[in-house]
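From the shared-data thread, chain only:
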Amino acid sequence: MLWPMPTRWADNDHYGHVNNVTYYAYFDTAVNAWLMQATGVDIRELPALGVVATTSCKYLGSISFPDDLRVGLRVTRLGRSSITYELAVFRVADGDLELAATGTFVHVYVDHATRKPVEIPDIVRTAAQALVVESASA
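Structure, as tokens:
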């Protein structure tokens, strides 16, 4: 699944490329925007919150404003209370996709009040199931 992601003027740092921490915002935005679209609900209103437990990024190429991006996402693990996403940031160049970064992103679902792990809400599980693939690293 490829999620469109525009770069913003403020994404560039002093060195003229998108700052490394911004990639994590791209991951967070792509996952949560996709979840809202795929479930048809405001995920903040669900009985459980998806909080980020782990995230990582490997930088492979440079991007800069005003590059047009796509963030690829897939699910490599769908557990009882957590979802592991693998992501890739691509720069759109002359109609082709150039890989700029790869990463992981783990949501753990917790109760709003207690913050203790709970089962993934059914509506989220159903949506995530559509993106499940066997991990290339498995």
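Residues 2-129 form a domain with the Thiol Ester Dehydrase; Chain A fold (CATH 3.10.129.10).
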